[in-house]
Amino acid sequence: MTEPSDLSSVPLPKAVRLSKSKFLSGLQCHKRLYLEVHQPSLATKPDAATQAMFDMGTEVGELARSRFPGGVLVTAGYRQSEAALAQTAELIQDLAVPAIFEGAFLHGGVLVRADVLERVQTEEGQFCGWRLIEVKSSTRVKDVHLEDLAVQSEVILGAGLTLVSTGLMHINTGYFYRDGAIDLMELFSIQDLSEAVAQRRAEVPARLAEMSRMLLQAQPPAIEPDQHCHTPYDCPFWEHCTNDKPARWIHYLPGPKQVASQLTQQGVTTIDEIPAGTKLSPVQRRVKENIEWVSTKLGPVLKAVQYPVHHLDFETVMLAVPRFSETRPYQALPVQWSNHIEEATGELRHEEFLHKDVSDPRKVLAESLLESLGSKGNICVYSPYEKSVIEQLAEALPSLRTALRALVPRLWDLHPIVRDHYYHPLFDGSYSLKEILPALVPSLGYDDLAIKEGGHAASQYYRMVFVETDWIERATIKEALLRYCERDTLAMVELRRALMEKTKMTDETG
Hints:
- By secondary structure, the protein is α/β, with parallel strands linked by helices.
- It has 2 domains: 18-215, Lambda Exonuclease, Chain A; 298-509, Ribonuclease H-like superfamily/Ribonuclease H (Nucleotidyltransferase, domain 5).
- It has 19 helices and 14 strands.
- The strands form 3 sheets. Strands 1, 2, 3, 4, 5, 6 and 7 form a 7-stranded mixed β-sheet that branches. A 5-stranded mixed β-sheet has the order 11-10-9-12-13, with helices on both faces.
- A hairpin with a 2-residue loop joins β3 and β4 (110-121).
- α18 (454-467) runs antiparallel to α19.
- The N and C termini lie far apart (76 Å).
């Protein structure tokens, strides 16, 4: 690889040490980097689902180390940089160490921690350099990974090491686990990215210099929120940077964000200012009109439902490391269902299932589901997701395949019915179940629940089954999961009823 650039002349603010994560923040937005360094308290804390993703990444990283027998972990924490640098230096000198995990390197005021640094030898057994490997829980190489490796390699080369190659280690979704021990060679793919990283690395010194000069300013750079706030990751300062925006700010227009960006370039700042004749989707047009709208076809569509009406919702877990025979990494495995059953008389009853142990949940879940759904009535859902889960269960369970496939024609998706036949200004262009409930069923929400959304439910389920040992805490999580899934299906019941009332009002005003 080429020689490292000189970063020593890059002026960094006193007591500020950049890291690879801050470098990536700066690539996304200089204002984000400035706020992370000078005003981190303004960031919104990650929600439960985001934190669960971080935790999964940590778990994958720890497992990945098993691919490198004899490797040694630098135990000093991320706040103990001097100790980490010293430990790393000792391990580099120890020729008996084949790989270093979380090695720390400092060059030009930039500190990085490398997931894996593998010692490379020639065919004759002579040491010839190191292989840098970044570990990700993702399933493919992304552009941000190249930038990540670029700044790491720049610093490691600057610290005096020879890099033979750089690569990315990620989850291989093609791995089909059957039984026994996990095949780490199959679970993880390693892609050599040396050439692509070298091209990006050439730009690192100039980028770092620009970032460090910006950090010396007394105020954050004046950068308006736009599409970059969500690419490659959602910026934690989004709420801070948009708290002074009007309620009908143009970037709240639903649909592709390019439309909002184009309108912004034309001087449009609010949805109400969108010029007449602008090409908009039906949903965008309703948001602009900002009035309640009821289609004349809503009533007939709702009345076509066949009783008893089952209201079905699944909760699933996606394991990066498969645990059950004949599953793949990140395969959605259903572990819970809720069913509110409404008779033609209006009578309502609730049935539910939650798999609570470490065994494969699919067969017992499918059997209980088939018993609850019976053979009559539509199955009301609020997305295509339930259909895909049922179809996957049918493929995995040959003995139940015919019965499970018979459920599919009975599915009745309420989401496109609402989307195509009703709009309320409180929707703000969103047709997610949680967004439309306050407008149609204001008495029914999620704020009183311990679990309020699906990502949190999945992470809590994982914790209940695979992590938590305290039976009281397990029971608490179980109850929270049951109440969350139950609320989703009750919401569909009340949503149908509220929409029927809207059709009555329309008929009366005629």
